[in-house]
Amino acid sequence: MEKQRKDGARLNIYLPDRAMRRRVKSAAAKHDISISEYCVRAIATQLAKEAQGMIDEEQDRASRLGEAVRRARRFQATVFGGKVFQVSSAELIENARGERGVRSGSRR
Questions:
Q1: Rounded to whole angstroms, how far apart are CA atoms 1 and 78?
Q2: For 70-79, how does the pLDDT look when each residue is reduced to its tens digit (9 = 90+)?
Q3: What predicted TM-score, i.e. pTM, was given to this entire model?
Q4: Separation between Cα atoms, residue 77 and residue 8, nearest integer Å
Q5: Do 2 and 37 touch, CB atoms closer than 8 A?
Q6: Cα torsion for 99, 100, 106, 107, to the nearest 10°?
Q7: What's the rounded mean pLDDT across residues 77-98?
Q8: DSSP secondary structure string, the chain?
Q9: What is the dihedral of CA 36, 38, 53, 8, to 10 degrees?
Q10: pLDDT tens, 21-48?
Protein backbone atom coordinates (compact mmCIF):
# COMPACT_ATOMS: atom_id res chain seq x y z
CA MET A 1 0.00 0.00 0.00
CA GLU A 2 1.23 3.53 -0.78
CA LYS A 3 2.49 5.84 1.94
CA GLN A 4 0.50 9.00 2.48
CA ARG A 5 1.79 11.87 0.41
CA LYS A 6 2.66 15.07 2.19
CA ASP A 7 2.11 17.21 -0.91
CA GLY A 8 -1.46 16.05 -1.59
CA ALA A 9 -4.74 17.41 -0.31
CA ARG A 10 -6.96 15.30 1.87
CA LEU A 11 -10.63 14.63 1.09
CA ASN A 12 -13.01 12.52 3.16
CA ILE A 13 -15.73 10.71 1.25
CA TYR A 14 -18.79 9.29 2.96
CA LEU A 15 -20.40 6.47 1.03
CA PRO A 16 -24.12 5.73 1.32
CA ASP A 17 -23.63 2.14 2.48
CA ARG A 18 -21.10 -0.59 3.25
CA ALA A 19 -21.88 -2.45 0.04
CA MET A 20 -20.58 0.43 -2.03
CA ARG A 21 -17.40 0.54 0.08
CA ARG A 22 -16.89 -3.17 -0.55
CA ARG A 23 -17.37 -2.64 -4.29
CA VAL A 24 -14.83 0.21 -4.36
CA LYS A 25 -12.37 -1.81 -2.28
CA SER A 26 -12.80 -4.83 -4.55
CA ALA A 27 -12.36 -2.77 -7.72
CA ALA A 28 -9.19 -1.15 -6.33
CA ALA A 29 -7.79 -4.57 -5.39
CA LYS A 30 -8.60 -5.88 -8.87
CA HIS A 31 -6.39 -3.11 -10.31
CA ASP A 32 -3.78 -3.62 -7.56
CA ILE A 33 -4.04 -0.01 -6.39
CA SER A 34 -5.11 1.68 -3.17
CA ILE A 35 -8.69 2.77 -2.59
CA SER A 36 -7.47 6.37 -2.63
CA GLU A 37 -5.78 5.91 -6.01
CA TYR A 38 -8.89 4.20 -7.39
CA CYS A 39 -11.05 7.12 -6.23
CA VAL A 40 -8.60 9.69 -7.62
CA ARG A 41 -8.72 7.97 -11.03
CA ALA A 42 -12.52 7.78 -10.97
CA ILE A 43 -12.82 11.45 -10.03
CA ALA A 44 -10.28 12.49 -12.68
CA THR A 45 -12.18 10.49 -15.32
CA GLN A 46 -15.47 12.12 -14.34
CA LEU A 47 -13.94 15.61 -14.36
CA ALA A 48 -12.47 15.00 -17.81
CA LYS A 49 -15.89 13.87 -19.10
CA GLU A 50 -17.53 16.97 -17.65
CA ALA A 51 -14.85 19.23 -19.13
CA GLN A 52 -15.37 17.62 -22.54
CA GLY A 53 -19.12 18.08 -22.14
CA MET A 54 -18.60 21.77 -21.43
CA ILE A 55 -16.45 22.07 -24.54
CA ASP A 56 -19.13 20.29 -26.56
CA GLU A 57 -21.80 22.63 -25.12
CA GLU A 58 -19.72 25.70 -26.01
CA GLN A 59 -19.17 24.41 -29.54
CA ASP A 60 -22.89 23.66 -29.87
CA ARG A 61 -23.77 27.14 -28.63
CA ALA A 62 -21.32 28.77 -31.05
CA SER A 63 -22.75 26.68 -33.89
CA ARG A 64 -26.32 27.68 -33.01
CA LEU A 65 -25.34 31.35 -32.76
CA GLY A 66 -23.57 31.16 -36.11
CA GLU A 67 -26.66 29.64 -37.70
CA ALA A 68 -28.84 32.37 -36.17
CA VAL A 69 -26.57 35.05 -37.66
CA ARG A 70 -26.71 33.37 -41.10
CA ARG A 71 -30.51 33.21 -40.95
CA ALA A 72 -30.73 36.86 -39.86
CA ARG A 73 -28.49 37.90 -42.76
CA ARG A 74 -30.61 35.90 -45.24
CA PHE A 75 -33.75 37.53 -43.82
CA GLN A 76 -32.15 40.98 -44.06
CA ALA A 77 -31.11 40.38 -47.66
CA THR A 78 -34.55 39.06 -48.60
CA VAL A 79 -36.60 41.77 -46.87
CA PHE A 80 -34.41 44.82 -47.30
CA GLY A 81 -32.63 43.84 -50.51
CA GLY A 82 -29.33 45.38 -49.47
CA LYS A 83 -30.85 48.76 -48.54
CA VAL A 84 -29.19 50.60 -45.68
CA PHE A 85 -31.21 52.85 -43.41
CA GLN A 86 -29.88 56.36 -43.00
CA VAL A 87 -31.64 56.86 -39.67
CA SER A 88 -30.75 55.20 -36.38
CA SER A 89 -32.96 52.56 -34.83
CA ALA A 90 -33.33 54.78 -31.75
CA GLU A 91 -34.84 57.50 -33.93
CA LEU A 92 -37.22 55.01 -35.57
CA ILE A 93 -38.41 53.80 -32.17
CA GLU A 94 -38.81 57.35 -30.90
CA ASN A 95 -40.85 58.28 -34.01
CA ALA A 96 -43.06 55.20 -33.63
CA ARG A 97 -43.70 56.05 -29.99
CA GLY A 98 -44.55 59.63 -30.97
CA GLU A 99 -47.05 58.39 -33.54
CA ARG A 100 -48.74 56.26 -30.87
CA GLY A 101 -48.72 59.13 -28.39
CA VAL A 102 -46.26 57.48 -26.04
CA ARG A 103 -43.57 59.75 -24.66
CA SER A 104 -40.02 58.63 -24.21
CA GLY A 105 -39.35 57.04 -20.83
CA SER A 106 -43.02 56.47 -19.93
CA ARG A 107 -44.91 53.22 -20.22
CA ARG A 108 -48.55 52.33 -20.48
A1: 71
A2: 999 899 888 8
A3: 0.48
A4: 60
A5: yes
A6: -150
A7: 84
A8: -PPPPSSSPP-----S-HHHHHHHHHHHHHTT--HHHHHHHHHHHHHHHHHHHHHHHHHHHHHHHHHHHHHHHHHHHHHHTT---SS-HHHHHHHHHHHHTPPTT---
A9: 30
A10: 999 999 999 999 999 999 999 999 999 9
